[in-house]
Write a structure and sequence with these properties.
32% of the residues lie in helices and 19% in strands. It is α/β, with parallel strands linked by helices. The chain has two domains: 22-237 and 344-399, 3-Layer(aba) Sandwich (Alkaline Phosphatase, subunit A), CATH 3.40.720.10; 244-334, Gyrase A, domain 2 (2-Layer Sandwich). The strands form six sheets. The protein has an eight-stranded mixed beta sheet with strand order 7-6-8-1-9-18-2-19. A four-stranded antiparallel beta sheet has the order 12-13-15-14, covered by helices on one side. A two-stranded parallel sheet has the order 3-20. The longest helix has 23 residues, at 197-219. Bound molecules: adenosine monophosphate and zinc ion (2 copies).
Amino acid sequence: MKKLLFIIFLTAFLKVQSQTPYTILISFDGFRWDYSEREITPNLDKLAGQGVSALSLRPCFPTKTYPNHLSIITGCYIEKHGIIANSFADPLTGEEFSLSNRNTVQNEKWYKAKTFWELAEENGIKSASYFFPGSELKNPKRRPSYFHYYDHNLPYEDRIDGVIDWLKLPIKERPKFISLYFHETDSYGHKYGPDAPETNIAIALLDSMLGILMHELENIDLRDSTNIIVLSDHGMTEISTERVVNIEELLNEYEVKIQGEKPFMLIEPDGDEIDEVYEILKLHDEHYSVYKKQKIPEWFHYKNNNAISSILVVAENGWSLVTNDWLESFNKYAGKGNHGYDNNHFDMHGIFYAAGPSFKNNYKTGTVWNIDIFPLLCEIYMLPVSENIDGKSERINFILKENK
Ligand code: AMP
Ligand code: ZN
Ligand code: ZN
């Protein structure tokens, strides 16, 4: 009897395994929601026709790369997964996390939430990542089976070849869930601004990479069994050296620690000077909003974390907050675009496209939220959704094909 039950269970398990689709989650860094309306993205258009396209993807605050990729892959707001900025300090130890420091990006202690790769692997679903923030932790239990150390200059075609090679592995070794990352639209958006012809070239280039990937999937006969999700971590807005507030100058009589980036600043005044510093900043708040930590609006979901300082300043969209030190380099190298601002501002929104066996065909929807992608993936792979996450399946699952 026991043997029979085991065989039934095993057969059911293998059936589910063979039926679970492949999914490739592709991130186009800084690809603003409206870039796909410029008639230079035929492959995204094709994907939209075959599957689901959303008006935009709403990121979390602050609208920066590392924090938002972690929200996408954990389903948690930034205050919960702990990567509160691209670079920040642990207030207890003074240690710094930075996306450009390999030791810190690989150290699991900074990452407080479970990633989808982890959940998938725990449930017997092999996963892989050709670059994605949070995918290269030293602890093998907290990363995908297959991954690569981030190499900004690795040609895009090599990344696609790498993904296709994984999909050509023998079935037992082959990953079912793969993430993939391209930075071009972010780099060009920063340098030339979101509306520049150079940025359009970057947009078209990434679109052509999607075309190559779709073609390669057809060549290995996996196009029909693969979900392709294309999304971005945030948008981009035009900035100018004319729209600058020097915060340090306003606070020149105070000892303050400043973290953050030009679209937002985290300020820690010395001991009992929080109220005074806040009042001075409030007096000059024409082109930014300033909040004491306890009063940061709930919609930011950016409060419940030790590393967030006592005062948060959020620049008006397109304005830059600087210190004396930052000002000189800002004037020289600022470029024409930036992101990191209020996540509800449309300029900060990204894209969301999804097509494949799990998704409805030719279905257009409004804005979806990036924290809901994790529960969406859980639904696709029939994995349990933890109650601790912030994402909600009921806000996004309507884009999936309904079982008839
Ligand atoms: P930012 O525009 O400052 O929010 O960050 C964008 C930059 O993040 C890109 O140009 C990449 O150099 C960097 N980046 C993206 N993914 C990773 C990664 N997995 N590890 C380290 N740096 C990354
Ligand atoms: Zn980014
Ligand atoms: Zn950027």
